[in-house]
Amino acid sequence: MKILGTNDAVNACECCGKSGLKFTVMVDIGGEVLHYGSTCATRHTGKTSSQIKQAIVAARDERKVAARKLHRATPEFLAYQAKLAEASRAGLRPGREFHAFVAPAAHAADETARAIAAAHNLETWEIL
Asked: Which of 6, 20, 88, 90 is surrounded by the most beta carbons within 10 Å?
């Protein structure tokens, strides 16, 4: 049994049926992902509320590391890094000209980061 994190898109407990929850705790039980309210999660995992919170943070951190690694290997991120290096070699300093030079590559890398973050159930800024 593993705590995978939380999900605010599912607002009903699959254990007791309570609905209108702010979020559910995603629990992997033998390969099946179930959504429990926080009370049912503590009852059925054998973990305290504090342990569940720690597991949720650890799961989010694992997703962040995986998403960051994936993002930094994308062609868009690599192109952005190359553009920054090119700007540096050209002697461009932060300002209007620098921004205009790197903006298209930065925008593409950011869009890729947003897609990867969404796929990993993260906020975009968490992986940058």
From this structure: 6
pLDDT beyond 90 at 71: yes
Please report where in the chains the tokens 């990993």 appear, as a residue. Answer: 120
**Residue 116 main-chain phi, psi, to 5 deg:** -65, -40
Cite the DSSP H helix spans in the chain: 38-45, 49-72, 75-89, 96-119
Please write the tens of the pLDDT for every residue from 55-67. Answer: 999 999 999 999 9
Q: Specify the DSSP class assigned to residue 22.
A: S
Domain spans in the chain, listed from the N-terminal domain onward: 1-47, 63-128
Instruction: Give 44: exposed, middle or buried? Use CB within 10 Å, 0-12, 13-18, 19+.
Output: middle
What does the alpha-carbon distance between residue 119 and residue 67 come to, in Å, rounded to a whole number?
Answer: 9
- In the chain, the N- to C-terminal Cα span, in Å, equals 30
Find tokens 């995986």 and name the residue: 66
Give me Rg for the CA atoms of the chain: 20
